[in-house]
Amino acid sequence: PRPMILMSKPCLRRASPKRILQTVEDHDIDLIVMGSHGRSGVGRVVFGRVVFGRVAEAVTRRSSVPVTIVR
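Above: the chain's sequence. Below: its structure in token form.
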């Protein structure tokens, strides 16, 4: 059987990590896809560690579901 892909809202803009993670919990979301403006350099390596923007990094660290960051 083919995997089922369902895309649904909510779409949050300029939301805090806390709000994003609460929305994930409230709507039983199983994957977060976030955009990044690249202001801090998506994929920038600092001291051997990949660094994202403040919100993307916070969500990635705290999320219980997978997070994909796109630029």
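The CA atoms of residues 31 and 66 lie 5 Å apart.
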